[in-house]
Automatic annotation (TrEMBL):
This is AntA/AntB antirepressor domain-containing protein. Residues 24-90 form the AntA/AntB antirepressor domain.
Length: 263
């Protein structure tokens, strides 16, 4: 599987090997399925579930990273990729599996027995295939550039979080994380996750701090309607260390949920 040519740029990019087999990149499959698990854990688990054998159903290769480290890439045969998509047991997994089947079916329908063509037509087909592969490669490169631009935009959002305007910026990122997770219906879950991490990391209880804050305000004669508007961000706001910790946690969650990746 050394030589790969982009065959279809769809829900998940599909490649063709020099022997004509269809394969996918494991990381691109993971991104297309929008899994919330860490890539390494997900791909190993799914390949194990499929009883996939290395060098038969998939290959691995080591790639150098910009930071000097290395990461393992998985090149997975189409049949195994279809099974991995099905194992997601959700709508996205179904859509990706159907997409693979549709592309495979279309490819078989369009297959031409080259040996049945006369020499001139065989030559024309070779020229056409060469031009088509060049155009597909250019399209893939352009898509990669666009994805990188989107990723840089996401990284800017995370890095540019302003400590002086932390409430507004963290709220904006939490909203984006919820959208990445599937929609604003996930907002409360994502927000509570951030608070839980802060509680555990700093050994505090934001719930208790919020209750105490309301009690102190009541003793100072603050009206109930104003106290009812308080939330855990107000409890965080009273402690500089918690503010710094919360900013760090929201940044970590932004990376975890893929805000630094192209959507």
């Amino acid at each position: 599987m050394n030589s790969l040519t982009l065959f279809e740029q769809g829900l998940v990019p599909l490649y063709q090997t020099d022997t004509g087999e269809y394969v996918v990149n494991g990381r691109e499959l993971w991104e297309g399925l929008q899994s919330k698990r860490q890539f390494a854990d997900w791909v190993k688990s799914r390949l194990l579930d499929c009883e996939a054998a290395e060098n038969e159903d998939f290959d691995t290769l080591s790639q150098n990273c910009e930071n000097g480290g290395k990461r393992i890439e998985y090149i997975i045969k189409l049949d195994t990729a279809k099974e991995m998509a099905m194992l997601e047991r959700n709508e996205i997994g179904k859509q990706v599996r159907k997409y693979f089947i549709a592309v495979e079916k279309r490819s078989k329908q369009n297959a031409v027995d080259v040996s049945a063509l006369n020499p001139e037509m065989q030559m024309f087909k070779l020229i056409f295939d060469s031009v088509a592969q060049t155009q597909l490669a250019q399209k893939q490169q352009q898509q990669a550039i666009e994805n990188m631009d989107k990723r840089l935009d996401g990284i800017r959002d995370v890095v540019a979080l302003n400590p002086n305007d932390w409430r507004k910026d963290t709220t904006a990122l939490i909203n984006k994380i919820a959208l990445r997770a599937g929609g604003y219906e996930h907002l409360n879950v994502i927000r509570e996750e951030s608070y839980k991490i802060l509680d555990e990391r700093f050994g505090v209880s934001l719930s208790i701090r919020l209750t105490n804050l309301k009690k102190n305000m009541a003793l100072n004669g603050v009206c109930k309607s104003k106290m009812d508007k308080l939330n855990k961000l107000d409890a965080i706001a009273n402690d500089k260390k918690l503010i710094e910790g919360y900013i760090s946690i929201v940044k970590e969650m932004s990376i975890k949920y893929g805000l630094d990746k192209a959507i």
